[in-house]
């Protein structure tokens, strides 16, 4: 079945489908608003006509931050996203289940932290959010991975990445191997110079 429909005025292409491939959840920015606020929307795509199910509006604390991870959905239809300084989950009816703070106000100001990506272990019910300073940030940088309980949003562990605070890196999403290890990799340096690839293996959280 081909789907063709105009869903919003935003510029983001990332979305997630539910297990039955009938529901889309899509974060986007409303460019008709001067502040370009982030909105998360859900659409029914079970027919050839797109039908809006709900809009979800993030908390005011992230209104000034337009970096948001790709959405992830579990078998219950719950969607998980990160936009600094918060991680949050939204149920299948568009209601907030939990919101968790991943960084302090001081860290946000000093390091201009952004959410980079999100990996999840659906069986273990643990999600891993990669957080760091953007390449355009001037001054010392900070990079870490937060592990969260997907059921209640509790931060289980914060993995501090031992990377020189003067370094500029391009982090990528962790690759999860079963429930034993995850592998985090990043590029160092900036184009057009040499950009070495580095990899670190870390044990996963056991609930």
TrEMBL record:
Name of this chain's protein: Uncharacterized protein
Organism the protein comes from: Didymodactylos carnosus
């Amino acid at each position: 079945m081909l789907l063709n429909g105009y869903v919003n005025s935003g510029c983001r292409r990332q979305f997630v489908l539910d297990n039955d491939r009938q529901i889309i959840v899509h974060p986007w920015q409303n460019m008709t608003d001067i502040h370009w606020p982030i909105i998360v929307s859900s659409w029914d795509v079970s027919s050839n006509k797109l039908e809006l199910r709900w809009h979800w509006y993030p908390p005011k604390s992230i209104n000034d931050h337009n970096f948001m991870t790709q959405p992830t959905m579990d078998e219950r239809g719950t969607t998980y996203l990160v936009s600094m300084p918060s991680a949050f989950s939204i149920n299948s009816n568009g209601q907030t289940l939990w919101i968790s703070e991943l960084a302090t106000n001081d860290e946000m100001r000093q390091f201009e932290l952004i959410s980079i990506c999100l990996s999840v272990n659906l069986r273990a019910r643990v999600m891993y959010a990669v957080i760091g300073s953007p390449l355009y940030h001037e001054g010392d940088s900070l990079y870490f991975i937060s592990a969260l309980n997907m059921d209640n949003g509790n931060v289980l562990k914060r993995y501090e990445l031992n990377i020189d605070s003067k370094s500029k890196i391009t982090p990528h999403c962790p690759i999860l191997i079963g429930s034993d290890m995850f592998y985090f990799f990043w590029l160092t340096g900036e184009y057009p110079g040499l950009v070495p690839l580095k990899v670190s293996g870390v044990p996963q959280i056991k609930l």
